[in-house]
Amino acid sequence: MNTACHAYLKSSARPVLAVFALLLLVGLSSGPAAGAATPDAWSSYSGWQVTSFKVEGAPADMAGDLQRGLALTGQWRLLRGRERPSFSVGTLAEDLARIRLFLAVRGYPAARVVPTAEPNPEARQLALLITIEPGAVVRIGEINYAGWPESVALPDTSESRILRVGDVFTDEAVAASVAAVRGGLRNAGYARVAISHEIRPLGPARVAIDLAINAGDFFVIDEVVVSGCSDDLVGLAQRVINIKPGTEFSAARLADAALDLRVTQLFRQVELATEPISPGHLRLNATLLDGRMRTWDASIGTWADNPWKVRSSWTHRNLFGRGRGFNARGAFATHEANLGVGVFWLGWLSPRARTRVGLDAIKRSEDAFDSEEFRMEVLQSYRPRQRDILNVGTAVSENRIEEKLPGSNDIPEAQGRLWEFWLDRKWDRTNDPIYPARGGFFKVAATFAEPWVLSVVPYVSLQLDAAGYLDLPAGSIFSGRIRAGAAQPIDAGTEVLATRRFYAGGYNSHRGYGRHGLGPRDDAGDARGGQAVGLLSGEIRLPMIWILEGGLFVDGGNVWRRIEEVNPADFPVAVGATVGLHSPLGPIRVGYAVNVAGLVPGEPRELWHFGIGYPW
Questions:
Q1: Quick one: 224 and 282 in the same domain?
Q2: Which of 83, 283, 400, 478 has CB atoms 3.0–4.6 Å from 470's, for a disulfide?
Q3: Phi, psi of 270, deg, nearest 5
Q4: Is 424 inside a domain boundary?
Q5: Average of pLDDT values for 504-519?
Q6: Which residue among 158, 188, 214 closes a domain?
Q7: Do residue 68 and residue 82 come from a single domain?
């Protein structure tokens, strides 16, 4: 039972609980279950310790939430485990009332709830069993929309929030459906819509829902007025809002405009409100307050394939006025350091676009090579929807790569300048970027280094990443990930530069191996990277006590020197377990993995790993 439901049961439902409690105190022993106590016996248990409290017979999709919301279940205490409460007749009656109310508002108003006691008089302890007989579920037999505008199609019943005939009747489902219907009309231009509804019985376990709709006038937005922010940002704000005079009113459009303004990070307050200026015509007032223009950020985690990485940046978001800013950033990791500066501006090609021109210096120290890269890039970022992102860019870089084992011929002798063009697109439907439990993401990244003008070692590469998250019963979460990538040199007789190859092994890729522990090796046995990669992982995350969680996982994958050498049979697999601590930085996790198939010679069979954040 979620927090909102707890609050409902403990506050607004208190009169209902009192009525239920009186009825239940009179009829606690009315059920037919064996072992049910008499009213006098229930009173004699007062003060006894409740050693166990189980609820059986509830509909499968409600059982876990139902029991967690009851007083006699007890509470988990740090280091002490579950703390068992003392029994009282009043507490039992209130818990039974909660169960009946919980079931009633979810479509089971005729449910029977029977408590059974297993006492231990010598120890003054009591085991409780609550047996539920849900009874017939109430379903919707009819839905009527009185006053629906003729110019708008009726609600699409394929949308999950819209009720259909035959759905289970619950207060929450009706409220959600009414809100969705109201939102649909507000998105169709009816800014002042009002809806009321009534429930009408149709017979045993069937009801009708009658909606009375007053849509009001159809509205368009004729003016957009921006106030409260600095003068140089007014024009940018109007461009980001992107609502032209004569635009049909839409609540969703206004919500998107407010989000777009917040994402610029230029404003600490965004308020959008409409006011009528004539019948069917609105003025949109955008009241904004400037945000902090100078910010410093720092973070630590296990990004990419580094065991740890510290990142920091300083930004002035409006140094040059009209949304044009400056950024300096740096990152330091076990095998990498980079520094960069850049200027950026908003809303050039699109109201949701950000353009950056930057200079970066990147230094890497791998087991097989050292590298230095100096690059100038132009990056155009576009945010189509919420956390979705599209990046298009080009960069000219000077690359210097030095082998640590001279004469191995594993690092191409032809190195130097690259002129690269890239595109990456990410569709993100996860419910939370730090602790995802539902949804998923898909990302495609493509890079092309041209062979005609500047590039010494031209190549083309493509990488696909996808992950999905499924909310399971009892708070468990299943997550799965797949990665596939390939890179190909354009000139015959060359290889992709070592800094542009694929690597695998480590916390973020394959936890059965250390960093870069998979794939081809050079003559000294060090990772040299490959031109193809494939990874497949699955994990079940399990809630534990307090802010701890556990996990069981399977990781598989490999890196191959060339695309034509890819062999699905050459696929090392590891299984393992993790324990994590929830923190503001994200989950802090430690785990143990055992390689069970395709063990790479010279690599350990068992491995501990540590990471900040989820691997995907």
A1: yes
A2: 478
A3: -135, 120
A4: no
A5: 94
A6: 214
A7: yes
C-alpha pair distances (Å), 58 with each of 66, 100, 243: 8, 11, 51
Last residue of a domain, one of 133, 154, 180: 133
- Say if residue 285 is in the same domain as residue 237: yes
Angle between helices 251-263 and 171-187 (to 10 degrees): 90
- What angle is formed at CA 545 by the lines to CA 539 and CA 547, rounded to 5 degrees? 75
Question: What secondary structure letter does DSSP report for 233?
Answer: G
Domain holding 253: CATH number? 3.10.20.310
φ/ψ of 219, rounded to 5, equals -120, 150
Which domain range does residue 33 map to?
3-133
Average model confidence (pLDDT) across the chain: 88
Q: 478 with 558, same domain?
A: yes
For the whole model, what pTM was predicted? 0.76
Query: Domain check: are 192 and 72 in the same one?
Result: no
What's the structural domain count of the chain? 4
Q: What letter represents residue 525's amino acid?
A: G
Do the domain assignments include residue 250?
Answer: yes
Same domain, 596 and 468: yes
pLDDT tens per residue, range 324-357: 999 999 999 989 999 999 999 988 778 889 999 9
Q: Tell me whether residue 298 is exposed, middle or buried, using C-beta atoms within 10 angstroms of its C-beta: 0 to 12, 13 to 18, 19 or more.
A: exposed
Please report whether residue 453 resides in a domain. Answer: no
d(CA 379, CA 391): 7
φ, ψ of residue 613 to 5 degrees: the values are 95, 160
Confidence of residue 177 (pLDDT cuts 50, 70, 90): very high
Residue 12 has pLDDT above 50, yes or no: no
Closest CA to 208 of 150, 179, 167, 148: 167
Q: Within 10 A of 334 (CB to CB), how many other CB atoms are there?
A: 12
CA distance 615 to 577: 13
Residue type, 544: M
> Is-contact 330 309, C-beta < 8 A?
no
Q: How far is CA 344 from CA 10, 90, 293, 505, 546, in A?
A: 51, 65, 13, 35, 43
Residue 46, in any domain of the structure: yes
Cα 477 to Cα 14, 538, 549, distances in angstroms: 34, 11, 11
499 and 602 fall within a common domain? yes
Are both 243 and 374 inside the same structural domain?
no
Burial 77-106 (b: 16+ CB within 10 A, else e): eeeeeeebeebbbebbbbbbbbbbbbbbbb
DSSP characters over 386-404: TT-EEEEEEEEEEEEEEES
